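Ligand-bound model needed. thiamine diphosphate.
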Amino acid sequence: MAGYRSKTGTAGAADRSPEAGRRRELLREMLRVRRLEERCVELYSEAKIRGFLHVYIGEEAVAAGVMSALAPEDAVVATYREHGHALLRGVPAGAILAEMYGKVEGCCRGRGGSMHLFDADTRFYGGNAIVAGGLPLAVGLALADKLSGRSRVTACFFGEGAAAEGEFHESLNLAALWNLPVLFCCENNLYAMGTALARSQSQTDLALKAASYEIPSWAVDGMDVLEVEGAARRAADGIRGGSGPHFLELRTYRFRAHSMFDPERYRDKAEVARWTERDPLLLLRTLLESSGQLDAADWEAMEREVDAEMAEAVRFAEAGTPEPADQLLRFVYSTPVQP
Ligand SMILES: Cc1ncc(C[n+]2csc(CCOP(=O)(O)OP(=O)(O)O)c2C)c(N)n1
Ligand SMILES: [Mg+2]
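Prediction:
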């Protein structure tokens, strides 16, 4: 992260306690997402990645904090701004990039692209391009778990724009009515494409909307990964304890455009600059450095390892194979079962 200065400076001074190690791990996870997407933007500019591309830069604390409160058997449902969620859930960076390159080695054989990452092995259920489309899916997954007596959480990420959709209200209502194990994670970055929240929704307190369905809900500083993690743990514990759905409004901001096609006429540069002062990586890094939990050598090693991971992912994607044209109808229809 060019421009960031270490306050502690000397290598080898950092706190080696498990707690400090866990926090450094959160920083590393956010850095992995940041670096992956910085590469995506470059590769898009080089026309190696085509189609739509929505980056999460600025919002990393939300996915990193929530994901750290989940267990491997839990499920995750996300939106089209989901590269970071897939990566932190355990989908390899190479499989994500190969997917964007349209290669067979991608997590969906290159058929889904950026907006439709999916991986059944890690219970990562998309990559959903329809605004609010993931919410009923999450409710269905949670209903299946409840009916089968499985103690699992389904975490559902969606933007604040989803709260204006009917599916949001139908999903919250049924989840509350049937006491389903869903963790609703509303990523409130203040804009739905170019429309500010206050221009499209009469009630801008999103946690209050959830509370109207009798769902325990609270607003969280989505730039502070430790706060997000704490809130997500509290909510996940409540869900596992049988107290039904919980809702987090995670207040965050995207530093980049909505997608790669967005002239950004709806917000001024001063607003973006104000929010970048609260960059989630900068906040955590500064906290760790000033409290002796991270030193210059730790940070340099972290950057080196993450850069190497992403370089290898790009190499893997570029070395991949495009789906042969005669295979393109495969998986469009299921194979009929022979009697
Ligand atoms: C049902 C539906 N309507 C419209 C769109 C077009 N669209 C794509 S992204 C988007 C904005 C969604 O904003 P938000 O939910 O706040 O998520 P963010 O992009 O800010 O993460 C819209 C309207 C869509 N994909 N689906
Ligand atoms: Mg939004």
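Residues 1-11 have pLDDT under 50 and may be disordered.
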